[in-house]
Structures are given as C-alpha cells and as structure tokens.
UniProtKB/TrEMBL annotation:
This is SAM-dependent methyltransferase. One of its GO terms (molecular function) is methyltransferase activity. The keyword Methyltransferase applies. It comes from Candidatus Sysuiplasma superficiale. One of its GO terms (biological process) is methylation.
Length: 205
C-alpha cells in the first residue's frame, strides 16, 4: 500500500494493521521528519518526492515505484496523475482518494472581490481523468459541508496559510473588504462558507 501525500502521517497511523509493505510519499519538506517519526515504528518508509529546487523527480506527479507493484494507493488531498497511479497498480488494484474541489470556500473570494481559481477541480473532472486512464469507478461521492468563520482574525489566518484560496492575498490590499467582512461577522455572528469535497474509489481494469 502507498499513501500519497501523507502529511505528518496522521491518517495513515490510524489505519493499522497495515499491509506488510506499506510506504508513504510526502513533498512538503517540513512534514517529512514528522511523518518519519510517526510512521517508522509502524514499519512504514516515508519517501520524499518533490517540492524545492534542490530535489526533483523526473516529472511532477511521477511515482517512485515499479510498474504493477502496488495493490492499494490511498490519497487524501494530494494531487495525482491518473496514468501514474494506474501504472504502479497491479491489475485489480484499488485507488481511493478524497480531494478538495475548486469551489471550496468560494464565498470568501466573492465577498472579498478576489478571483475564483480558473481550474475546475470537481468529481466529474477527476472521474473523467481516472476513467480515461483506465480505471473503473466503483464508488463516488461529493459534498459541500459548511465552513464557519467566527471572527476576522480566523479569516486572515486561514488566507495566509491557504495560499491557494486567494493567491495574491495581503491584508493591506484587501483591507477595505476585510473591514466589511468584519462588520458582517460582528452583525451576524458568523461568516458562512462551504468546503467542496469529493471521494472516488477506482479499480485498475
């Protein structure tokens, strides 16, 4: 089994017992030692993939595994190349992924007058990619659960961390709109947005 983009290994460490050969990939350098510390006692190797100028695999999204060598690939919020996942899976192998869609918290972008990401990442888009690569989809789901902000500090903190939400976010540049949002929250108690999540389970034909 391979866990793509394991982060700090939090999810994988709760899926015990694991298959005899289990490993994880992680591209964000600060997460790598955290994941290794958490997963090493479980016999899981953490493989650093790509992220900075000093380390690169041949192609973004390429996986460092032999053809048809893996039974199960799991992926929570990590980007993937459908043909690469298909390549490393054995026939009948399974790919399970939960993804964050492009409509996540788009209400924030709209309120602040920021551009909405142009790339449309949805269940339909991901499903088409997997089917075109050679997967049979056997389970799928999509949901938009609420995401509540109770003060403007939480909004600013989120936007500073989640650089993909508003890629040009700076407090000074959005100050007027942030003050309007602060007033909205003070008046209504919350600012309500929605996450956009979807799930797919596919089998290599």
């Amino acid at each position: 089994m391979v866990d793509l983009g394991t982060g700090g290994g939090e999810l994988l460490s709760h899926l015990t017992p694991l298959p005899p050969f289990s490993c994880a990939t992680e591209g964000y350098l600060p997460n790598v030692p955290v994941a290794k510390k958490k997963l090493a006692p479980l016999g899981v190797e953490v493989i650093r993939t790509y992220c900075d100028d000093n380390y690169a695999i041949p192609q973004r999204g390429a996986l460092p595994f032999r053809d048809s060598s893996i039974d199960l690939v799991i992926d929570r919020h990590e980007s993937f190349k459908a043909d690469e996942v298909l390549r490393v899976l054995r026939r009948g192998g399974v790919f399970i992924t939960q993804q964050v869609g492009s409509r996540t918290k788009s209400e924030l972008n709209e309120f602040l007058g920021a551009k909405i990401p142009e790339v449309k990442w949805t269940l339909a888009t991901a499903k088409a990619q997997l089917e075109n690569a050679g997967f049979s989809i056997i389970e799928e789901a999509e949901a938009e659960p609420r995401a509540i902000f109770k003060d403007i500090g939480a909004v600013v903190c989120y936007l500073r961390i989640a650089e993909w939400q508003i890629d040009d976010f700076e407090v000074a540049a959005y100050e007027e709109k942030l003050r309007q949002l602060d007033s909205h929250i003070r008046k209504n108690g919350i600012f309500e947005a929605h996450n956009h999540l979807f799930f797919l389970r596919g089998v290599k034909r």
